[in-house]
Specification:
This protein is mostly beta strands. About 10% of the residues lie in helices and about 50% in strands. Strand 12 and strand 13 form a beta hairpin.
Length: about 350
């Protein structure tokens, strides 16, 4: 009787374990990239955006917080965080908008998940509780702002670690890389033919495994936004006109002459108004303490304000600060010189 009861208990335990594993498997959506809503136990840890990456059934949540007070986030309690090695903590990574993001692995959806945040101000871990709501899951596409970036491909094939250049324009993204060692490449079933030794293909989304075939074998390609850096774009030495985009109607550039000598680029920008007596190559918060780098306005023959600015790159946003003579205040702006509009004057 006792033996039969023991056997029954073992069977129940096995079934319970299997059911638990099945439930855990069912709690993870299909592999992919999603947006998901998240509740927090406190306003001091407000999640304003969450991207959920699912890879081989494992879920990684990339949390964007409303504030910038936490240096690290840990998937667990504050006591567990303190006992864990520092490499287990998730450091903040600034996104395109300068907000802090943290990537942590989570065990399940629709249940309380213990996390902790390390306050940079108080040098202390604080316990928080999050809940990820499966009913809010929607497929997500991550794109880069217009610009040119250096990146590194992640893959389970020979392309792992390959350097590439990403060009983003109007939400469309194109990847370029060397075709050396790649006899055949297809992305989502579409074959990619090399052009002068370069492979070029459209990337549907960042931060997501894209199905591919590399040298005849099934694989995936992944480009993480956190690993992208600005790619320096230049042109041959000469003198050009070039179109300049800005992020604000309060700073209009009506003309630009770009001089390139030994690879160094200098732009003579002509403004559409005379509101700003100085420009600064950088952020408004840094300008007051860096007066030697202020770029003074110089009226041209017609009285229009011009500025002589060293340009680090084409096709990428360049942060500049404008100084209002009337209000004696600095404002953050950005300019982008469009290489496709280059017209030679020399």
């Amino acid at each position: 009787m006792k033996q039969k009861l023991a056997s029954t208990l073992i069977l129940v335990l096995i079934l319970t374990t299997l059911c638990g594993l099945c439930a855990a498997a069912e709690s993870a959506p299909a592999d992919g990239l999603y947006s998901i809503s998240v509740s927090s136990s406190t306003k001091m840890f407000k999640v304003v955006d969450c991207a959920l990456r699912v890879e081989d059934g494992r879920m990684t949540a990339v949390l964007t917080l409303s504030g910038t007070g936490y240096g690290y986030v840990f998937a667990g309690t504050s006591a567990e965080a303190e006992a864990a090695p520092e490499e287990a903590w998730a450091p903040y990574v600034e996104n395109w908008d300068g907000k802090y993001t943290y990537a942590i692995e989570i065990p399940a959806l629709d249940q309380d998940v213990a996390v902790s945040g390390f306050s940079m101000k108080y040098q202390k871990w604080y316990d928080r509780t999050l809940n990820f709501f499966s009913s809010t899951l929607t497929e997500r596409v991550d794109t880069a702002p217009d610009g040119v970036y250096d990146g590194v491909l992640r893959s389970d094939a020979s392309l792992e670690g390959t350097a590439c250049v990403l060009t983003a324009k109007g939400g469309a993204m194109t990847v370029e890389l060397s075709g050396e060692g790649i006899d055949a490449l297809a992305i989502d079933g579409a074959e990619v033919a090399p052009e002068n030794g370069t492979l070029r293909f459209t990337l549907p989304s960042l931060n997501k495994r894209i199905p591919a075939q590399v040298n005849g074998g099934d694989a995936y390609l992944l480009l993480n936004s956190a690993e992208l850096t600005d790619h320096s774009v230049g042109a041959e030495d000469g003198v050009y006109t070039i179109d300049v985009r800005t992020d604000s109607n309060l700073l209009k550039i009506t003309g630009c002459v770009l001089s390139i000598r030994n690879g160094k680029m200098t732009a003579m920008l002509t403004a559409g108004n005379s509101s700003y007596d100085y420009l600064y190559l950088g952020l408004a918060k840094d300008a007051p303490d860096d007066e030697s780098a202020w770029i003074p306005a110089a009226p041209d023959a017609s009285g229009a304000f011009t500025y002589l600015v060293e340009i680090p790159t084409l096709d990428n946003e360049i942060p500049v600060a404008t100084h209002s003579a009337k209000k004696s205040l600095w404002y953050d702006r950005s300019i982008t010189l469009d290489s496709t509009t280059l017209q030679s004057l020399s």
